[in-house]
Design brief:
The protein has 215 residues and is α+β, with helices and mostly antiparallel strands. It has one domain. The chain is built from 3 helices and 6 strands. The protein has a 6-stranded antiparallel sheet with strand order 2-3-1-4-6-5. The radius of gyration is 23 Å and the shape is globular.
Length: 215
């Protein structure tokens, strides 16, 4: 009889454990909680002068687009580059003109559309000069970690580029828990040179196109 009682108690405990586990499984993660936000347009010039790695125009565009998307920029971002090497090879000095949209919390200083940076526009496409007011959206907090090889688009040779992007561009994004440490050594590749972590207000997966804010 004691044996049967033991089996019965074990069954009850197992059922309770399963119920608790099920509840934990269906509870949404904090990062997946929808957050009211607005899209804000940014325009920025970015000039890269590295000692360890040099990029072609196409290479710089690819890396910058990858960093922008990883950091939560909207998919319709644009990057135009110019390089000192006329034949399309790696250039010691490479620059880019970027236009992109980031999410901001309504009412925050970042939610105010910045004035267009028209200095040194050169022959950039006309759409860069078009003003755009913030539009409503829904986002979520997303954890981002960048290391050499994680994500695979970046390796140890990208240390200087990632560090410069961190310092010059990430201020346009809504971040929290931002912690970075770089050991970029000129003319050397450091395997552990890139270590940056942050949470960014990013768009929901396959989110619908945002609608203009009612005025």
């Amino acid at each position: 009889m004691n044996t049967n009682k033991g089996f019965w108690m074990s069954g009850v405990l197992l059922a309770l454990a399963s119920f608790v586990a099920l509840g934990a499984a269906v509870e949404p993660a904090a990062e997946a909680t929808p957050v009211d936000a607005v899209w804000v347009k940014h325009e920025r010039n970015f000039t890269f002068m590295g000692f360890t790695s040099h990029y072609s125009c196409d290479g710089l565009e690819y890396k910058l687009k990858s960093l922008l998307r990883l950091s939560g920029a909207r998919d319709d971002l644009k990057v135009w580059s110019s390089c000192s090497e006329p034949r399309g090879g790696p250039s010691r000095i490479a620059s880019a003109r970027m236009t992109y949209w980031t999410l901001a919390l309504p009412g925050s200083p970042q939610a105010t559309a910045p004035a267009a940076d028209t200095k040194n526009l050169g022959h950039a496409p006309k759409e860069l000069k078009a003003a755009e007011s913030p539009v409503s959206a829904v986002g979520q907090w997303k954890k981002v970690q960048i290391r050499a090889g994680r994500p695979r688009e970046f390796d140890s040779g990208d240390c200087e580029l990632v560090e410069q992007f961190d310092r010059a561009v990430l201020a346009d994004f809504t971040l929290r828990n931002h912690a970075s440490r770089y050991t970029c050594i000129p003319h050397q590749v450091s395997l552990n040179g890139i270590q940056t972590d942050f949470e960014v207000l990013a768009p929901l997966p396959k989110a619908a196109a945002p609608k203009p804010i009612s005025r």
